[in-house]
From TrEMBL:
Organism annotation: Astyanax mexicanus
The reaction(s) this protein catalyses: GTP = 3',5'-cyclic GMP + diphosphate
Keyword Nucleotide-binding found: yes
Membrane topology category: Single-pass type I membrane protein
Family as reported in the entry's similarity comment: Belongs to the adenylyl cyclase class-4/guanylyl cyclase family.
Protein name: Guanylate cyclase
Transmembrane segments annotated in the record for this chain: 201-221, 258-279
Keywords associated with the record: Cell membrane, cGMP biosynthesis, Endoplasmic reticulum, Glycoprotein, GTP-binding, Lyase, Membrane, Nucleotide-binding, Receptor, Transmembrane, Transmembrane helix
Chief location bin: membrane
GO-annotated molecular function: adenylate cyclase activity; ATP binding; GTP binding; guanylate cyclase activity; peptide receptor activity; protein kinase activity
Length: 778
């Protein structure tokens, strides 16, 4: 290249190419000057025609171009690029020897051969001052360049200290006393002030590095050793810190039926607020864990994930060792799937919600497989629990060195044949749970097989090319994609089953596709589901309220049958009943004559049927009178009137009328298992003061106390079959009423604890006919 400076610093570039020839480009570029090499290249001859064209070009260029853009020819110099050979520069440098003649007369002589170039190159008097600085050519044509040593003065200026003339091989000193910025204007020592050599510093640095590396390694070793030591340490939770839930505080949390018989709901007061947790019995250990078991338990303590229940430790009681886990209020996933009233398919558990449940399980298992726990081993729907936000969490994981695996419907076929745990086995268990979620049927539901042992055998020992798996059927395209995923998860070959990372990704795509297919947004779907769930809750509340009212009425009716009405109302309002004293009541007693003999000739069920038939008819008779049935003890039947509601003198009348009705009924009663054999009863009636109150908290009874009760019992025991034995006090009350009762004096009768008393036989009422049975004569 030749660069020609022009007017206003505009430069022109002429490119010499070996193949193309002469071309002209007009970029504005920088320039430099270069020397010659002493070696002559054979390629130089191929550059002569282009060089000759250069001469013709410049002659024409200087004659025709605007004078304002031209400068003196002597200002043209050579520009070199690193990727272009140097042969052309040798030639141009030689051509420059006659610069003055060429610029003044536009000298057109062209050097054509080596003989013409060599004398020019070997001229020792050639001197050049270009942008590269002053240089001279030696006898070999090499460039001798001078060198300068610069220094910075105290005023921060650059000056030349000395110059070295390469051609003359001598040094010219420009400053004898330079103002150097060094202390005392003296050259600094080549050694540090402390006398350390470079190799000393290297040794010191290496020594310090070795010490630091050793210290860090020792620190890491001690930390690792301490960590392993801590992993082998384990202490049980103090049982005193675990407080069972008080039934009076059950409104604080939602109580569900526990899904393990060995689980107990408790409060764990190691937190600012009482934390509900749940206990899982560890039956295969006595609490003295091995080193491996302690390491595994410490790993469980560090597990903290949204879809995994928190493990708090173990507690040891005299009756066993328990693991302490986080409690989820809604119970197990199996419980939620079975409760189709609280969680209906139409308004709550649609396909979108079911996929989100499976997605929660997949996320929890994906995290578990990537943690130190590595696998579950006992994954099933009863080990998936639901919290109050409907988030599914996995529990009962880990402890694989403590808990032994079992064979159930969720166990993978390979683990049924050879006991063990694996991640692929967890994938199989997930597929069975997914089938439960989709169909909301029993675990491993099939249409043609319902026996548990048969299902386990068919899974463990498949016959033929087809494998035995649960029933599964889908209709829509989105469901079909889920169908393919579930089938791949319970594949017979464990290696063909996907891992939980892929399952999580696939479920996420299916969930997104369901949203994309719907016209509504995610928030619209969420609001729609909440509205449907709210309406369902309203219907559920109404239904449950109606059931509650029916049960309450049934319970009240049962309470009114067991206890008097005022007593029931007092118990409901205040929780207790004050004992009460009654001035005058009438008490009825009856029992079966020869009851022991009848029982001897009857079976227990026949005796029960006999008493049930007889007492049901007695109870229906009581409904027609103002009386209260106190109790039945075996064949004894006790009734009172005048309590708990006082009725004046009517208590004796009502008891007497009731006794006549009962005696009339006994005239028609026949034993089913002993036809033709009559059934006789004795009846005793007595009136007097009495105390009454409720006794006991469990199965409370309204009991009567006082001498009147004992006397009425003696009246019954001293009476005769098919007769109503009445005391003098009762007859006196009846005589004060308007009722004309017919009675017969029996005479003085000895009553135990009372002596002789005048007693009577009640016969009936004047003007009313009773078909009373005829009493036996002997």
């Amino acid at each position: 290249y030749l660069i020609i400076p022009g007017y206003n610093n505009v430069c022109f570039c002429v490119c010499i190419s070996q193949d193309v020839g002469l071309t002209l480009t007009i970029p504005v570029i920088s320039a430099g000057s270069f020397g010659l090499s002493c070696d002559y290249k054979e390629k130089l001859t191929r550059l002569l025609p282009p060089a000759r064209k250069i001469s013709n070009f410049f002659v024409h260029f200087w004659n025709e171009t605007w004078s304002g853009l031209k400068t003196h020819w002597s200002t043209a110099y050579v520009y070199k690029q690193p990727d272009i050979s140097e042969e052309c520069f040798w030639y141009i440098n030689a051509l420059e020897a006659a610069t003055a003649q060429f610029s003044s007369q536009i000298y057109r002589k062209v050097l054509r051969s080596k003989e013409e170039i060599s004398p020019v190159l070997s001229d020792p008097n050639r001197i050049s001052n270009r942008m590269g600085g002053h240089y001279e050519l030696d006898e070999n044509g090499d460039r001798d360049t001078n060198f300068s040593v610069m220094f910075t003065t105290g005023t921060h200026q650059y000056k030349t200290l000395f110059e070295f003339d390469t051609s003359n091989n001598k040094t010219q000193l420009n400053h004898n006393n330079p103002d150097l910025p060094w202390r005392g204007s003296r050259l600094p020592d080549d050694k540090p002030a402390n006398g350390l050599q470079t190799h000393d510093i290297i040794v010191i640095v290496l020594a310090i590095s070795v010490v630091l590396v050793t210290a860090v390694a020792l620190l890491f070793y001690r930390q690792n050793r301490k960590q392993r030591f801590n992993q082998k340490k384990w202490s049980h939770i103090n049982p005193d810190l675990i407080i069972p839930v008080d039934y009076r505080e059950t409104n604080l949390i939602s109580l569900k039926r526990c899904f393990h018989l060995s689980v107990l709901l408790i409060f764990f007061p190691l937190f600012p607020s009482l934390q509900p947790v749940i206990l899982k019995e560890l039956r295969q250990t006595d609490g003295n864990f091995s080193d491996d078991q302690r390491i595994e338990l410490n790993s469980l303590l560090r597990v903290d994930y949204y879809n995994l229940t928190k493990f708090y430790g173990t507690v040891k009681y005299e009756y066993g060792v328990y693991g302490v886990f986080e409690y989820c209020e809604r119970g197990s996933l199996r419980y939620v799937l079975n409760d189709k009233i609280s969680y209906p398919d139409e308004s709550f558990m649609d396909l979108e919600f079911k996929i989100s449940v499976m997605y929660d399980i997949a996320k929890g298992m994906s995290y578990l497989h990537s943690s130190n726990i590595e696998m579950h081993g006992r994954l099933k729907s009863t080990n998936c629990v639901v919290d109050n936000r409907m988030v599914v969490k996995i529990t009962d994981f880990g402890c694989n060195t403590i808990l032994t695996p079992g064979k159930d419907l969720w166990t993978a076929p390979e683990h049924m044949r050879v006991e063990g745990f694996s991640q692929k086995g967890d994938v199989y268990s997930f597929a069975v749970i997914a089938q439960e979620i989709i169909l909301r049927e029993c675990p491993f539901y099939t249409e043609n097989c319902s026996d548990l042992a048969e299902k386990l055998y068919k899974v463990q020992c498949p016959s033929g090319p087809t494998i035995f798996r649960p029933y599964l059927n889908f209709e829509t395209a989105g469901e079909q994609e889920l169908y393919v995923l579930i089938k791949s998860c319970w594949d017979e070959d464990p290696e063909k089953r996907p891992d939980f990372k892929k399952i999580e990704s696939t479920l996420g795509k299916i969930f997104s596709n369901l949203h994309n297919q719907a016209n509504a947004s995610y928030m619209d779907n969420l609001i729609r589901r909440l509205q449907m769930y709210s309406r369902n809750l309203e219907h559920l509340v109404e239904e449950r309220t109606a059931l509650y009212k029916a049960e309450r009425d049934r319970a009240d009716q049962l309470n009114f049958m067991l206890l008097p009405g005022p007593v029931v109302r007092s118990l409901k309002e205040t929780g207790r009943v004050e004992p009460e004293l009654f001035d005058e009541v009438t008490i009825y007693f009856s029992d079966i004559v020869g009851f022991t003999t009848i029982c001897h000739h009857s079976t227990p069920m026949e005796v029960v049927d006999m008493l049930n038939d007889m007492y049901k008819n007695f109870d229906s008779i009581l409904d027609n009178h103002d009386v209260y049935k106190v109790e039945t003890i075996g064949d004894a039947y006790m009734v009172a009137s005048g309590l708990p509601r006082r009725n004046g003198n009517r208590h004796a009348v009502d008891i007497s009328l009731m006794a006549l009705d009962i005696l009339e009924f006994m005239g028609t009663f026949q034993l089913k298992h002993l036809p033709g054999i009559p059934l006789w009863i004795r009846i005793g009636v007595h009136s007097g003061p009495c105390a009454a109150g409720v006794v006991g908290n469990k199965m409370p009874r309204y009991c009567l106390f006082g001498d009147t009760v004992n006397t009425a019992s003696r009246m019954e025991s001293t009476g005769l079959p098919l007769r109503i034995h009445v005391s003098q006090s009762t007859i006196s009350i009846l005589q004060r009423t308007d009722c004309q009762f017919e009675f017969e004096k029996r005479g003085e009768t000895y009553l135990k604890g009372k002596g002789k008393e005048m007693t009577y036989w009640l016969k009936g009422i004047t003007g009313q006919k009773y078909n009373l049975p005829t009493p036996p004569t002997a």
